[in-house]
Design a protein that fits this description.
The chain has a 4-stranded mixed beta sheet with strand order 1-2-4-3. By secondary structure, the protein is α/β, with parallel strands linked by helices. The mean pLDDT is 87. It contains 6 helices and 4 strands, in the order E-H-H-E-H-E-E-H-H-H. It has a single domain, classed as Metalloproteases ("zincins"), catalytic domain (Collagenase (Catalytic Domain)), CATH 3.40.390.30. The two termini are 20 Å apart. Helix 5 packs across helix 6. Helix content is 46%, strand content 17%. The chain is globular, with a radius of gyration of 14 Å.
Length: 143
């Protein structure tokens, strides 16, 4: 399985030079949970809150910025996915849960990749007990 992971606009959104290596490792760790994933590409783009809000409204009809949106674009022969992460929302979540921003961003990368791989979860609070969240947290512990 050869999968390329691209990280876009991270420095622009965080306002500082940031090593994206840990985010690529998080993406690859999540991708390796699916042993039959075909070769392909995953793009992870960081957006400010206003752009994330517009994307969320355009594709899901929701008028607020969210922490992560993921789109699976592959054709079955080739894995292709776009993941969008909002560091502004991630920062709020990290602070609320006593987590570092770096760890929260890694969590969102893993979460987005799992969605691209076809995993899903309920939209209510029961999502935290879902199989997808269990896989997500296991990957983060292993990182």
């Amino acid at each position: 399985m050869t999968i390329q992971v691209h990280v876009n606009r991270l420095d622009e959104c965080l306002g500082l030079r940031t090593d994206d290596g840990h985010l690529k490792r998080a993406a690859l760790a999540a991708l390796h949970t699916c042993s039959d994933a075909p070769a392909g590409e995953v793009s992870i783009t960081f957006l400010p809150a206003a752009e994330m809000r517009a994307l969320n409204r355009a594709y899901l009809g929701r008028g607020a910025a969210t922490d992560v949106l993921a789109f699976e674009l592959g054709d079955g022969e080739r894995l292709l996915g776009d993941i969008y992460i909002c560091p502004d929302v991630a920062s709020e979540s990290a602070e609320e849960h006593g987590e570092t921003l770096a760890r929260e961003l890694a969590r969102l990368v893993v979460h987005g990749v799992l969605h691209v791989l076809g995993h899903d979860h309920p939209e209510d609070d029961s999502r935290y007990e879902s199989e997808m969240f269990a896989i997500q947290e296991r990957i983060l512990i292993e990182l």
